Amino acid sequence: MASLTRSTAPVQLGVQLAGRGAAAGARVRDALAGAGLTLRSSFTLRLLAEGPVGQQALIDLLGVDPSALVAVLNELEGLGLVSRQRDPADRRRHIVTMTAEGAGALRAVDQVLAQADDELFAALSPAERDQLARLLDKIADDCGDQ
């Protein structure tokens, strides 16, 4: 009769990372939802923190379909967090700018994400968190991700 005991075979790192990533992603999405934003809208605000960006550049930076970005910008604009204007140098282009309300929302996002990180990584020391960040960056660089 087969044993029902737990296998001692090692779990593949990719599988382990995917499982932990799904749990972390859910916690981050929940934290952002509490701030009234989605992951994509918070990424968009983060990109706009450096200053106005052309809509096409945002599409490229986020790696999304143009219609997906339009939906995010419509949402953010409806909340008063961003504004879009035609580029005076090229009327076919739109320039997206974060509003003062958007900057406030981004500060709130930073706070809820810091709290989520504290909960997610409570078992790690600050040095271990730094090491994990470096390792994840190394993996992302090797995979060609940004």
Could you give the topology of this structure?
Elements: H1 13-34, H2 39-48, E1 53-54, H3 55-62, H4 66-78, E2 82-87, E3 90-98, H5 100-120, H6 126-143
Antiparallel strand pairs: 1-3, 2-3
Helix pairs in contact: 1-5
Name its key features.
146 residues; mainly alpha; Arc Repressor Mutant, subunit A; 3-stranded antiparallel sheet; 6 helices; elongated
What can you tell me about this protein's structure?
This protein is mostly helical. It has one domain (about 25-145): Arc Repressor Mutant, subunit A (Orthogonal Bundle), CATH 1.10.10.10. The chain has helices spanning about 15-35, 40-50, 55-60, 65-80, 100-120, 125-145; strands at about 55, 80-85, 90-100. It has a three-stranded antiparallel beta sheet. A hairpin with a 2-residue loop joins strand 2 (about 80-85) and strand 3 (about 90-100). The longest helix has 22 residues, at about 15-35. The radius of gyration is 20 Å and the shape is elongated.
* Major sheet description: 3 strands, antiparallel
Mean residue pLDDT: 88
CATH topology tier name = Arc Repressor Mutant, subunit A
Which geometry do the CA atoms define? elongated
Provide a count of the helices.
6
Structural class: mainly alpha
Keywords: DNA-binding, Transcription, Transcription regulation
Domain HTH marR-type: 1-141
InterPro entries: HTH_MarR-typ, MarR/SlyA-like, WH-like_DNA-bd_sf, WH_DNA-bd_sf
Protein name: MarR family transcriptional regulator
